[in-house]
Design goal:
Layout: E1 2-9, H1 13-29, E2 35-41, E3 44-51, H2 54-79
Antiparallel strand pairs: 1-3, 2-3
Helix pairs in contact: 1-2
Length: 80
């Protein structure tokens, strides 16, 4: 089993919470060929992904990074 831990810290707890909630539905629906846990603590989101195939693990990580990127950009637009 291949695994990867991704920790992303944000400028504030509010930003981390908004982004966590924004990607939560995608997180729950993406558990088909990989499994992942996602936790939030203060201003940090931690995602642990596991998959049998390295290519599936890589695709899962890229998906999380895309979702987080879109949510962060939307958050910044709404804050300005």
């Amino acid at each position: 089993m291949n695994s990867f831990e991704l920790k992303i810290s944000f400028d504030s707890e509010e930003e981390a919470e908004v982004i966590y909630k924004a990607i939560l539905l995608e997180h729950k629906s993406s558990q088909i060929r990989s499994s992942a846990t996602m936790e939030i603590h203060k201003n940090t989101i931690t995602i642990n992904v596991k998959a049998e195939d390295l290519s599936i693990l890589k695709a899962s990580i890229y998906s999380y990074l895309r979702w987080i990127g879109v949510a962060k950009n939307t958050y910044e637009i709404c804050k300005s």
